[in-house]
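User: Okay, second chain of the day. Same drill as before: sequence in, C-alpha cells out.
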Amino acid sequence: MRRLAVATQGAQVPCAWIYLLVNCEDRTPVIAEVKIGRDGDAFLALVQALAGLIHLATPGQYARLRQRYPAARFPADGRPPPMDAYVICVDPDWRSGQREALLLTAKDIAAAVSASPRTAALVRRVTLLSGAPTGRGVAGRHPAVKPASGQSGHPGAAL
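Assistant: Same drill. C-alpha cells below.
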C-alpha cells in the first residue's frame, strides 16, 4: 500500500480539485485530479491530471515546486523525476451519459501511458481511484492518502 501526503504543509487547498501529493515512501510527486459526483468524468480528469503533471515536469517548474514545498522533500537530483498522476472519482455516477465508456477509455489510456517507454521520463504511474464521501474525507480500499497535517489517511479503491 502506498502512503501519500498533501504537499501543502497544512495550508488551505484551493477548490480547483487538483492536488499536489507526495509519495511518503520515495518522495515522488503525485498530481491528483479529483472529480466529485457529476463534476466531470474520468477521461476529463485524466487529461487534467496529465496536463498538471507535464506542467510540473519541466526543470524550472520542478525547481520552483521544490522551493515552494520544502517539507515535501521531493527528490533533489537536479532533474524532475518521473511523477505519478492520480484520478480520484468520488461518488461517481457512471450511469449518466457516456461516463462508463469514458471511464473505460481513461483506463486504457492510463495503462498505455504508464507502460510506454516514450513517457517513462515524465510519468511513472497513472492510477484511477474511486471513493465514497464520509464525514471526514473519502473512504475506499487502496492506496492510503494521508494529509501532511497528520490527520488520518483516507484510502481510495482502484477503479
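The CA atoms of residues 142 and 156 lie 5 Å apart.

User: Thanks, on to the next one.
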